[in-house]
Design a protein that fits this description.
Length: 409
């Protein structure tokens, strides 16, 4: 909605964005939540070595992309994401556009995960980093995909460029376009100066709302805010590429949207903080983000338990052998579970030896596992590592991505 159609408070001073964190008198319970999250995330990190289970991490990027775009009403089917990864795009123009958007999100997320180990706190919170995320995401799309709907004459999104016009979102009029730089600098200076540890986790949650509130871009603000939260959590060493709040946001979207909007409200009297915006609304938003993160960590910790995985792998291989019938056999369980447990790679000869078959049958089994995506390799004779294809989700990680599980096997 254009601000001309309604009367809104005009925000032109960064101090109007205060408070940027809940006050000290409200932080106690939130810091306890953040401490619990850090402890749970450390436990999960101990279950998986950095860089291991690459197939799972790629699948999680596809899932994060699906859920982030679902929040915007722009998602595509998980199967269509998988097809796009094979360069197989839908004939329907809108479906193909959404497929390209899904792949762009995955690529940007992977790029952030590649970069964040070398970044310092200042770079993570820099205004330029926010613009770079937007640039990286949308510059991957063709010009036709960047057309902004319902604009006459047609307008196209400019990757990385701050908006040049006034906009409103629901009841909230975003800050004046000419002052966006000042608002982003204030956002960066405050959150970037927060000490590491529990308070930085609170900063991540609060900054997500305040960045969406600033609404720096003509479009794509929600996606950028979610990717930045993913970046902060990863930079803090809390995700190890194994979880993200994006899944939780989408699976509780009504609450996500409602609490974002509630935190947009002005201060409701002297008992609601000392800034211009509601402190109570910000506190409730931060609490929601922390609970959402804890839920995701708890889920993945349970999913990666060794004993449970062995039983789920056995069920997958039984289904493959008895129903799919493309050459996969249950004798592969020991070798596959070994790859999962060690999170490493095996020479082909060593993997075949673990199968307990003759050379010809073992070679055929490796070929079948590779074809079904249950194994991965970088070359025809290279080492083997565990694969996690979408069709195995219902067995390996049930309830992780229900929409993908619902697809034909």
């Amino acid at each position: 909605m254009d601000s001309k159609s309604q009367k809104f408070q005009l925000y032109d001073d960064p101090s109007q964005m205060d408070l940027l964190l809940p006050g000290l008198h409200r932080q106690g319970p939130l810091l306890e939540q953040a401490s619990d999250l850090i402890r749970q995330a450390d436990r999960l990190a101990g279950l998986c070595q950095p860089g291991a289970l690459a197939g799972l991490r790629r699948l999680l990027r596809a899932m994060n992309s699906y859920y982030s775009n679902k929040i915007e009403g722009q998602h595509t089917l998980p199967l269509e994401i998988e097809q796009a990864l094979r360069n197989d795009y839908a004939r329907d123009a809108d479906k193909a556009r959404r497929q390209r958007l899904a792949l762009a999100h995955m690529a940007t997320e992977a790029r952030l995960e590649e970069l964040w180990p070398s970044w310092d706190t200042a770079q993570v919170w820099a205004p330029q980093t926010v613009q770079d995320i937007h640039q990286d995401l949308f510059a991957r799309l063709p010009a036709d995909d960047l057309r902004i709907p319902d604009t006459d004459p047609p307008e196209h999104l400019q990757p990385g460029a701050l908006r040049q016009r006034q906009v409103s979102v629901g009841r909230h009029a975003a800050p004046a376009a000419e002052h966006l730089g000042a608002f982003l600098r204030r956002w960066s200076e405050v959150y970037g100066a927060v000490r590491r540890g529990e308070l930085q986790v609170l900063a991540m949650a609060a900054a997500h709302h305040r960045l969406a509130w600033i609404h720096p871009f003509r479009d794509g603000n929600g996606r950028v805010a979610r990717l930045h939260s993913h970046l902060v959590l990863g930079h803090l060493g809390l995700t190890n590429g194994l979880w993200s709040p994006l899944r939780g946001f989408a699976r509780s979207q009504e609450r996500y949207d409602a609490l974002l909007a509630a935190a947009d409200e002005p201060r409701a009297g002297d008992l609601d903080g000392r800034g211009n915006l509601t402190e109570r609304g910000l506190e409730q938003w931060v609490a929601y983000v922390l609970v959402t993160c804890q839920d995701q960590v708890r889920f993945m910790t349970e999913a990666l338990a060794l004993d449970g995985m062995k039983n789920r792998m056995a069920a997958c291989l039984t289904y493959e052998e008895q129903v799919v019938r493309q050459g996969v056999r249950t004798e592969a369980l020991r070798a596959l579970h070994y790859l999962f447990a060690t999170q490493g790679e095996l020479e082909r000869a060593d993997f075949k030896a673990m199968l307990g078959m003759g050379e010809r049958l073992a070679s055929a089994q490796v070929s079948a596992l590779l074809k079904r995506g249950l194994l991965e390799s970088d070359s025809p004779h290279g080492k083997l590592r565990l694969g996690v294809p979408q069709h195995a989700l219902r067995f390996y990680f049930p309830r992780l991505w229900p929409e993908a599980e619902a697809q034909p096997y």
